[in-house]
């Protein structure tokens, strides 16, 4: 390889994966002047980094489809745009395999963590008092807004305002208080807020527009895309480097080494990516590695059996199950989002967006909220937080009434105890062996959902159904009780996966990484991403992963040079 290639030098830090955690961590570690290589298996999403996938009307701008908030939901509309290569083909769940990881494609909803997010889930070292400075740093680097359009207005708001009025109606049963979520971090019991986004200047924003920009200004930092890490190379308890495979134009194939005696390998490849790399490196449940060794297409590449490290990687899988309540309501604002892709610059909303980053395209579809939180105290003495996301619109195809609807989506977040498990199939696909929904033997998780849904239903009945002529429940459908409906519904994923490299204060039963973020049994191999967050936080989780990265940077910097 040529002398400037990352293959021909050694690195103080090799970070694998450019997601919500990997980018902030790379930025902070590169501040030290040490050499940092950030490896990403995917291609450039945002236009700032060379992403060029765009509709005709973005030609000649420095934006790609991934930079326009109003186009973010295209990832769900294969029939409009196709989404080839957006999702990791080797993962059964939705995981984004492009620059920015989840932050490159996601909805940008950004809620700063509550203290409970750390105190209820993480060990000493990552409790609220330990992460206070990390939280301060994260919130400085990632500004947020509830009014993304640069003209300071919100668009397509009639459903949102109608619901806000209903849920804060003080004469209605179980009404909510309205707050600004990111100014009131620990107020999550029957409170509502407009949705907070990390959008900036009418564009997507997030780590790709902030942390990665500062990292890239440093000579000691290098980002390499289209490069998949197959495994960590180990010499006993020391990671010597990584084996990489090119998976796109300009990608690298070969071995990349860390500086002997002091270099570190850090896995930030997300819940699914980190799980797979660890197993392929001979670190994980013995029975999983045994299966790979017996059947998989790469059995010969696994380290010899005596070097396997038996850890519960892939256990403790968590995600928030989604359920929907829906009401048919006439006269909701609707917008032809699906026609935007093939539209032209004559379209007044496109003109407005290109001219002043204003109008509906500066927003995430109609999802300005409100978002609501309810805290339910279970008979087991645990508090569980249920988040209700609101959206409204009009479905022209299947129109009961005039086709208008309000949807209330539950996310069973902080405090639930159900957990699942990942597995790696012989053809190296990451599969969900056990989904983490309502697996608790006691049923307290379901009871919390039912309690919260019952009170929300009563609130909707006392408000929207009284004030809006012709409105009626779509879900639960007429004649079906709430409990029966919820029990029969297959929960959808909230795509908020966490927990599969469980963090403990120190290594021991059930622990995969200690509070220095080091993989147990290894001296210089770390995990810093959603995998080390032991349970779901209160709200959409990406801010927690940024705070974890900020805290991990402090901890890793504190470990000093030699290991
Ligand atoms: C469609 C969608 C919408 C979402 N919306 C929101 C939201 O609005 N708000 C919110 O808070 N959360 C949201 N989330 C969740 C959030 O984006 C993720 O939880 C978060 O990005 C996870 O961060 P991470 O750093 O652990 O991993 P990721 O962000 O997934 O990053 C991992 C990176 O590692 C790379 N990688 C994986 N394996 C390898 C390998 N072997 N070699 C090299 N690179 C590798 C991947 O390509 C990826 O870039 C959403 C998720 C999805 C899928």
From TrEMBL:
FAD binds at residues 229, 541-542. GO terms for molecular function: flavin adenine dinucleotide binding; oxidoreductase activity, acting on CH-OH group of donors. Its cofactor is FAD. Residues 95-319 form the Glucose-methanol-choline oxidoreductase N-terminal domain. Residues 417-549 form the Glucose-methanol-choline oxidoreductase C-terminal domain. InterPro entries: FAD/NAD-bd_sf (IPR036188), GMC_Oxidoreductase_CD (IPR053208), GMC_OxRdtase (IPR012132), GMC_OxRdtase_N (IPR000172), GMC_OxRtase_C (IPR007867). Keywords: FAD, Flavoprotein, Signal. It holds the Pfam family GMC_oxred_N. Belongs to the GMC oxidoreductase family. This is FAD/NAD(P)-binding domain-containing protein. It comes from Ophiobolus disseminans.
């Amino acid at each position: 390889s040529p002398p400037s290639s990352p293959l021909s030098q050694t690195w103080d830090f090799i970070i694998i994966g450019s997601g919500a955690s990997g980018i902030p961590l790379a930025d902070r570690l590169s501040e030290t002047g040490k050499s940092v290589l950030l490896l990403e298996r995917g291609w450039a999403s945002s236009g700032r980094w060379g992403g060029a996938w765009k509709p005709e009307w973005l030609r000649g701008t420095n934006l790609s489809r991934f930079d326009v908030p109003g186009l973010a939901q295209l990832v769900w509309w294969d029939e409009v745009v196709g989404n080839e290569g957006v999702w990791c083909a080797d993962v059964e769940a939705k995981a984004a395999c492009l620059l920015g990881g989840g932050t490159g494609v996601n909805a940008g909803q950004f809620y700063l963590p509550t203290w409970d997010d750390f105190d209820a889930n993480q060990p000493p070292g990552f409790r609220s008092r330990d992460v206070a400075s990390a939280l301060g740093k994260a919130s400085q680097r990632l500004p947020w807004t509830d009014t993304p359009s640069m003209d300071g207005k919100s668009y397509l708001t009639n459903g949102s305002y109608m619901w806000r009025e209903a849920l804060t109606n003080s004469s209605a049963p179980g009404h909510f208080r309205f707050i600004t979520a990111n100014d009131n971090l620990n107020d999550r019991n029957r409170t509502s807020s407009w949705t907070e986004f990390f959008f900036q200047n009418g564009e997507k924003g997030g780590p790709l527009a902030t942390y990665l920009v500062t990292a890239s200004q440093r000579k000691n930092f290098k980002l390499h895309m289209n490069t998949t890490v197959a495994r960590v190379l180990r010499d006993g308890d020391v990671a010597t480097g990584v084996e990489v495979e090119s998976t796109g134009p300009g990608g690298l194939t070969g071995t990349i080494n860390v500086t002997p005696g002091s270099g570190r390998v850090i896995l930030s490849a997300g819940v699914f990516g980190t799980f797979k790399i660890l197993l392929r490196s001979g670190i994980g449940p013995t029975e999983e590695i045994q299966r790979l060794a017996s059947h998989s297409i790469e059995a010969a590449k696994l380290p010899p059996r005596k070097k396997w490290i038996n850890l519960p990687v892939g256990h403790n899988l968590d995600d928030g199950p989604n359920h929907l309540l829906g009401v048919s309501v006439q006269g909701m604002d609707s917008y032809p989002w699906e026609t935007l892709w093939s539209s032209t610059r004559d379209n007044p909303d496109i003109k407005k967006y290109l001219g002043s980053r204003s109008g509906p395209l500066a927003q995430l579809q109609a999802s300005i909220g409100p978002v609501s939180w309810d805290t339910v105290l279970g008979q087991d003495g645990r508090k569980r937080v249920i988040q209700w996301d609101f959206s409204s619109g009009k479905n022209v195809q299947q129109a009961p009434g005039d086709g208008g609807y309000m949807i209330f989506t539950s996310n069973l977040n902080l405090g639930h105890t159900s957990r699942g498990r990942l597995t790696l199939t012989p053809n190296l696909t990451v599969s969900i062996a056990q989904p983490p929904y309502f697996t608790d033997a006691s049923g307290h998780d379901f009871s919390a959902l039912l309690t919260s849904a019952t009170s929300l239903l009563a609130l909707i009945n006392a408000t929207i159904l009284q004030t809006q002529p012709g409105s009626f429940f779509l879900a639960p459908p007429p004649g079906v009780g709430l409990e029966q409906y919820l029990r029969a519904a297959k929960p959808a994923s909230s795509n908020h996966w966490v927990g599969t490299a469980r963090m403990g204060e120190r290594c021991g039963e059930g622990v995969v990484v200690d509070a220095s973020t080091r993989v147990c049994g290894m001296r210089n191999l770390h995990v810093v991403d959603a995998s080390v967050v032991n349970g779901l936080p209160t709200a959409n989780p990406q801010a927690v992963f940024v705070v974890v990265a900020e805290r991990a940077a402090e901890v890793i910097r504190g470990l000093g040079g030699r290991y």
